[in-house]
Amino acid sequence: MKICCIGAGYVGGPTMAVIALKAPDIQVTVVDMNATRIAAWNSDTLPVYEPGLDEVVRQARGRNLFFSTDVRGAIAAADIIFVSVNTPTKTYGVGSGRAADLRYIESVARTIAEVSTTPKIIVEKSTIPVKTAETIQQILAANTNGATFQVLSNPEFLAEGTAVVDLFNPDRVLIGGERTPAGDAAVKTLADVYARWVPRERIITTNLWSSELSKLVANAFLAQRISSINAISALCEATGADVDEVANAIGKDSRIGPKFLKASVGFGGSCFQKDILNLVYLCESFGLPAVAAYWNGVVEMNDYQKRRFSARIVRSLFNTVADKRIAVLGFAFKKDTNDTRESAAIHVVRDLLAEQANVVVYDPKVAAADIQADVLGKGVANPRLNVAASAYEAALNAHAIAIVTEWDEFKTLDYAKIFAGMHKPAFLFDGRNIVDLAHLRALGFRAHGIGR
Ligand code: UDX
Ligand code: UDX
């Protein structure tokens, strides 16, 4: 059997590497139109940082795992084609700012139809609006050169930073297909691939639309928990309650559960906001404005939380940060990844620059050029924005520190040394609630957390 995956990104790359590792008899080829990215996958410095990924790739690459730019050749040879191209939020035309941009999905479908001469199973890995499978089917049917196609939905639930662990041991694998004999056969073929390492009872099969919708709903529910606790964090700051204590107390209720209750400067990442906006757009399109408004509140609360964090910094520093040096620790949207898409840090840094602060960012994995480009735009410079090579360098001569990503190394910094090198009063704003505020206050910091 041969598998091809179109899109060598944060999802396609790790997912295919693990399939290749666990199924040595299947030849897996990951293709991408971005030649630089493919070259990186074939090098010692992978384009995606994920704990454990280097080892998986080292074992399978060259054996049954290949990275290539020959998109058409890989499609022609494959029995199963995963589509894992990006589906950003539209920035133009109808649905701008909310609907998904499906141009890449459509162009991939057209290429598959053009190139294929044997039966293929097409697997949607990208997160897409409900009923995209139907679009793909129509494009394939209208352009086929005689090949037959079965379209499946198989959304990926891995979280970045823990991709390898999540892929090795998923809570569930979801496969949606057409409820016809040919559809059932295709679902079985894909289920058999996962069954090599995932227990059968964790492989769930549904109809196509349930599968597509479940991905959006899973992300919406996860994000909703974060917005819920973040809403309460604002109330905690006003009342003197401690949001971590509240989260712990409510999380002990087995009906609520302890996970995804960490108050923060706001969720980021390529999925949560995009998928909720997709859900909102879908509800509006189907004439359900009350449902749309309900879910849109999750995104609004997240925007509020990001703004609230930078506003608190400015307010605490006597209502002016102009020309003050602020160290921003962490820029990735969460720890253990070099991904910055929708990171709260982008908004925090922009807000501080708008207040004419001098911002110095340090992140252990994000390249300086990416930080500059995310905040200012590609090729734009601003003398007020700089990148440091360590937390200590960033904090030297700073008036305040803002922890924006929960990297483990920020928990164990020598804060006494950092305090000694800062302007006084020295402020610290922990946007992730990872440091011991009492300890920092004992050192002399004016230390604030989220909701505490
Ligand atoms: C994935 C999913 O695809 C997306 O729907 C989900 O919401 C987030 O995770 P991700 O792997 O993170 O996306 O995206 P990205 O890292 O941008 O990778 C997509 C890759 O597809 C890029 O390398 C891009 O070059 C490639 N691509 C895109 C193609 O090869 N062909 C195309 O036509 C379009
Ligand atoms: C998410 C989903 O978890 C995953 O199942 C889906 O496939 C893709 O989207 P990801 O975005 O990679 O994964 O990371 P996740 O761990 O969910 O974190 C998302 C954001 O929420 C991060 O910015 C994180 O810092 C934040 N977060 C998470 C909180 O602020 N508080 C929490 O309690 C949990």
Taking the alpha carbons of the first and last residues, their distance comes to 55 Å
The fraction of residues assigned to DSSP E strands is 5-15%
Mean pLDDT across every amino acid position: 96
* Bound small-molecule species: uridine-5'-diphosphate-xylopyranose
- In DSSP terms (H or I, runs of 4 or more residues), the helix count works out at 17
Shape: globular
- Unreliable parts: none
Write down the Rg. Answer: 23 Å
Global structural class? alpha/beta
Number of strands: 14
Helix content: 40-55%
Quick synopsis:
44% of the residues lie in helices and 14% in strands. It has 452 residues and is an alpha/beta fold. The strands form 3 sheets. It has a 6-stranded parallel β-sheet, with helices on both faces. The chain has a 6-stranded parallel β-sheet with strand order 11-10-9-12-13-14, with helices on both faces. Strands 7-8 form a two-stranded parallel ribbon.
Give an account of the 3D structure.
The chain is of the alpha/beta class. It is 44% helix and 14% strand. It contains 17 helices and 14 strands. Strands 3-2-1-4-5-6 form a six-stranded parallel beta sheet, with helices on both faces. Strands 11-10-9-12-13-14 form a six-stranded parallel beta sheet, sandwiched between helices. Strand 1, helix 1 and strand 2 form a beta-alpha-beta unit. The chain starts with a strand and ends with a strand. 47% of the residues are buried. The model has no long low-confidence stretch (mean pLDDT 96). The chain binds uridine-5'-diphosphate-xylopyranose (2 copies). One uridine-5'-diphosphate-xylopyranose (UDX) binds next to helix 9.
